[in-house]
Write a structure and sequence with these properties.
By secondary structure, the chain is α/β, with parallel strands linked by helices. Strands 3, 5, 6, 9, 10, 17 and 18 form a 7-stranded mixed sheet that branches. A 6-stranded parallel sheet has the order 13-12-11-14-15-16, with helices on both faces. Helix 10 links the parallel strand 15 and strand 16. Helix 5 runs parallel beside helix 6. It binds zinc ion (2 copies). One zinc ion binds next to helix 2.
Amino acid sequence: MKITAAVLREINKGYSVEELELDPPKAGEALIKYAYAGYCHSDLSNSKGFTKMKLPMVAGHEASGVVMEVGPGVTKVKPGDHVASAWMCPCGDCPECRAGMGNICSGTFPQFVNGTMLDHTSRLRDAKGNTVLHGNFVSGFSNYTVMPEGALIPVPKNLPLDWAALMSCCIPTGWGTVTKKANVQPGDRVAVWGMGGVGQNVVRAAAARHAYPLIVVDIEEARREKALKLGATHFINASKEDPVPVIQGLTNGGADTIFECSGDPGATVQAYWALRASGKLVQVGIMGEHEVAPLALTFLVFGQKTIQGVLYGAIATRDDIPKYVDLAQKGELMLDTIIEGHFKLEEINDIRERMERRELNGRWVCKFD
Ligand SMILES: [Zn+2]
Ligand SMILES: [Zn+2]
């Protein structure tokens, strides 16, 4: 069938919105009609070549929609189901999956970076008949796609579908990191660098865990109001003042846990120096593969500190995303505050440029007809 999609063909050139040919789902796959897809900071990073994804690919890894058709043997979803599209599809049988870490599954990681379905082939071709790849199984910026059923998470039909799209990336990454990996306790002194979609969910989750103080650091003053509304107790504009001594003062010596959600190496260095003894720096933001954060690790040892990387909130997609759906429906996630606006697929390059200029202060979600 003919579909319309935003294709990333070259780094630093933006997206080309094209008509593509999509093959029907094969065994274990489903055809999805997308309703919404969020524009994540990782989309911007991918478009700049910060992480090495194979091109050309249909971009987008945070999407929701309706199952239209299923291939042979599919049991996890059926036509008519509303779904969030997860960007990890745990194989269930690699050492990581067997150890309960499907979020870093090595069994399907090659397909994740190579942009194929689980059988190592693509369902997409362009007007010249050349293969186009799938963005991290999801290919969110397309009106239709094919997904492996193991990456599809059914959601209730009364959940707004733009909220459901955020269930694919920024919500589980933020909430899982705070609750499953960092295990923030009431009264823990917490700081968060970066108020993008993930950072905003980290703040909500840390507020739900009663972190105090809960300090947000960002370089855009425009994000102060939203950070405080989402539950931060303090906001530091790092373009105006050095956040390290301010945090040391507010926390009587440094934060217990710091979440670095911006992916900026300089932010990681600042966050490192703002830790107290035995504190933990949780790196969530993804730097470019060519970037380095210079850290004086002498003080990691003397202060017995920890640096921890977390991917996808360390969640089990099929078990944890439904819990976040319940919390969203209870109002805990404040998604109407986190979602700043909707856009049309044709406007994706404008959204990309506005994110690069740091003009977006919340999630922007592509709406399909
Ligand atoms: Zn993302
Ligand atoms: Zn696996």
